[in-house]
């Protein structure tokens, strides 16, 4: 309080300290006004400095998140390259062409290798004015959709470039949805390899299609299904590889 006292005492000219004859002194009012102005100034300075510090911390946090995601992407690419090298060495070790063919079929079914072929593209998104969970695509909604596509005859599925296998988790992580522990953002583009002439009709007969018709009609979520113009190319699941195999 010494600073405020000094400000208050030094803010008045000597003439103003003299009481007006026949009336109250001006000093208490002027001191009060001066103190209020000083307090407001100090509060504004502290608020401005605090806002600047929070902005710097937020920017630093965003930079760290971006750096971590970039490193994660680099490590995933390196892991995929190493898996491909291991796979090629394993194929070279198999001298029997029949065994190589069988190994390739198993790797394709397990999602350990990239695949390409005709198919459909399903795009789902949050409601235009979501606001609540009812207007958002949930992890359970995506799981239902993927299960319905498998039931409709899908041979391979990927969500926003992430390959879906029998071991791929689709989970909620706060406000985001993670697929294989990678956070994804809407809209969700589901690429499906399979017979495009029959898959959509077969999907429409599944419980998953009935569920999506319900949430799109009642909560404003959107879903579109279209046939891919060209062959779809789905990547391998970077965490999936054939470790052991036996022959009959």
Structure description:
- There is one protein chain.
- With 248 residues, the protein is of the alpha+beta class.
- The chain has two domains: 2-59; 97-234, Alpha-Beta Plaits.
- 49% of the residues lie in helices and 17% in strands.
- The strands form three sheets. The protein has a five-stranded antiparallel β-sheet, covered by helices on one side. A three-stranded antiparallel β-sheet has the order 5-6-7, covered by helices on one side. A two-stranded antiparallel sheet has the order 1-10.
- Strand 3 and strand 4 form a beta hairpin.
- Helix 1 (2-10) crosses helix 2 (27-93) and helix 4 (139-151) runs antiparallel to helix 6.
- The termini are far apart.
- The model has no long low-confidence stretch (mean pLDDT 80).
Topology, please?
Layout: H1 2-10, H2 27-93, H3 97-110, E1 115-117, E2 119-125, H4 139-151, E3 156-159, E4 162-164, E5 170-173, E6 176-179, E7 182-184, E8 188-193, H5 199-203, H6 207-219, E9 222-227, E10 232-234
Antiparallel strand pairs: 1-10, 2-8, 2-9, 3-4, 3-8, 5-6, 6-7
Helix pairs in contact: 1-2, 4-6
Short description:
The chain is α+β, with helices and mostly antiparallel strands and 248 residues long. It has helices at 2-10, 27-93, 97-110, 139-151, 199-203, 207-219; strands spanning 115-117, 119-125, 156-159, 162-164, 170-173, 176-179, 182-184, 188-193, 222-227, 232-234.
């Amino acid at each position: 309080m010494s600073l405020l006292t000094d400000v208050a005492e030094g803010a008045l000219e000597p003439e103003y300290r003299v009481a007006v004859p026949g009336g109250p002194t001006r000093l208490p009012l002027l001191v009060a006004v001066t103190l209020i102005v000083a307090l407001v100034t100090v509060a504004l300075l502290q608020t401005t400095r605090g806002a600047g510090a929070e902005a710097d911390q937020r920017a630093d946090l965003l930079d760290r998140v971006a750096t971590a995601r970039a490193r994660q992407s680099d490590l995933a690419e390196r892991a995929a390259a190493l898996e491909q090298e291991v796979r090629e060495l394993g194929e070279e070790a198999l001298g029997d062409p029949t065994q190589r063919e069988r190994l390739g079929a198993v790797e394709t079914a397990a999602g350990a290798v990239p695949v390409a072929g005709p198919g459909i593209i399903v795009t789902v998104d949050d409601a235009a004015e979501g606001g609540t969970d009812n207007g958002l695509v949930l992890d359970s909604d995506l799981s239902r959709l993927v299960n319905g596509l498998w039931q409709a005859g899908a041979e391979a599925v990927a969500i926003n470039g992430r390959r879906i296998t029998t071991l791929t988790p689709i989970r909620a992580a706060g406000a985001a949805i993670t697929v294989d522990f990678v956070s994804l953002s809407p809209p969700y583009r589901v690429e499906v390899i399979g017979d495009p002439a029959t898959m959509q009709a077969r999907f429409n007969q599944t419980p998953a299609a009935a569920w999506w018709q319900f949430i799109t009609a009642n909560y404003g979520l959107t879903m579109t299904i279209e046939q891919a113009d060209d062959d779809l190319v789905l990547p391998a699941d970077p965490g999936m590889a054939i470790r052991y195999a036996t022959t009959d």
